[in-house]
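Model: Ready when you are.
Researcher: Fold this.
Model:
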Amino acid sequence: MSPLVASFVAHFGEMGSRWGINRTVGQIYALIYLSPRPLNADDLTEALAFSRSNVSMGLKELQSWRLVRLKHLPGDRREYFEAPSDAWEIFRTLAEERRRREVEPTLTMLRGALMAAPTTDDDRVAQERMQGMHDLIELMMTWFDDVQRMDARTLAQLMKLGAKVGRLLEFTGHLKVAGQRDPE
């Protein structure tokens, strides 16, 4: 592994723990992502000096997140793995998986809680706040669905607009800055 690749792999392992995956899985993914060819478990074990069982568990985790694809090479019985090279595809996959694993269960819980009849004033306040959270998450998921349908070029253009969208809305009178009061 070159110093350039080793640096990225080490950093990705460190960042992985902040993103909700363990260091080993992060490093395995980084090496597969950077590799110009599919890698098998033996390649990963040797390059990263991890145990074969850690590599196998890491590969299963990455497959469950749909971040790596299994590939078979002609004449070779081993399983090889590759990652999409397109960063937008990876971003979309991660966003979809996070939605499925984190957001949808939260929405299900909130819907159930909002259907319950409040029995106290505290419950009514709690439901009002849950309703606000539910509405925000639903709005974000509608926006997410719209964004997911955009091609990468359009999405990049939208992201480059950044604060210009806010200035346009402010100019047209459709923007209220957070913390700003309505004129009375």
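Researcher: Now this one.
Model:
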Amino acid sequence: MVLGILTSIAACPAIIGTTEAVRQGQKQNAREKHRSRKSNLLVTCSDPSRKARDIHGGTVVLRDKKLYVTTVNPKAKFPEDYEDDNERIRGYGHLFAGYFFPYPDSTWGRRGEGYVSTIQEDPPQLNWIYVDKDTYEVKYGLRKEAEGHIVGPWNCSPIDRRLTFDGWEGWTVVEEKPGEWALYFDVDDDGLEGRVPLDKRIMEIELTRRETRMQKGDPIL
């Protein structure tokens, strides 16, 4: 009897430790649920120029295999290209709706994962988000299109959930055409020197994830 009591007492710390580990694991899983939820990307730009108004408070959209920033609600008008009097009109693009997803054969560990986004509503289809290794443009495509480029790791800051890439925030936008701002990542942290013509406007931005609105019938994770 005494031996049994002593054994139980000796086992208590282990039991308590195991229970606490399970609780911590459950809390961690709850905190990480947001990673699998579709989120839009909201843009913050603190550049002092008036040009910042073109993008500050805007969103990221996908169009023509690239990512762009716009303050125009892509769902307010025609989100895709459309025909008007036999003329093809360019739409604003598909609103980014992405989430973290394990990239095949990656070795990033806790540094992050791959990143995917829907590219159309019907039928639903996902593409990988990646950074072009030559131009540093942020693009989207199938795995065969992403291979050979910089595909991750993608992550986000723990509190504000600002998007990070390879462990930091090097997001910039380039005005490729008047009022058309393409998303880049400043891989070398040198202001995209040699990647973008000198006459193009470049501004630094931050990207924050915001979960898409839950629709009736969506699963509760």
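Researcher: Key takeaway?
Model: The longest helix spans residues 2-32.
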